[in-house]
Design goal:
Blueprint: H1 8-20, E1 26-33, E2 36-44
Antiparallel strand pairs: 1-2
Length: 49
């Protein structure tokens, strides 16, 4: 399956999975407008202890 075969929802899901890779502490926020995801925000924490 190539990138052209992905739906918009599939692309968003893959983007979220990419953002999660390697993240140990933090959050991902989905911003929704009119029932559609319009923005993803990633906040990552770094533990120093």
């Amino acid at each position: 399956m190539g990138k052209k075969d992905l739906t918009k929802d599939d692309a968003i899901a893959l983007q979220i999975l990419e953002m999660l890779k390697g993240m140990r502490y933090g959050s991902i926020t989905l911003v929704v407008q009119d029932g559609k995801v319009i923005q993803l925000e990633k906040s990552e924490k770094v533990r120093l202890s």
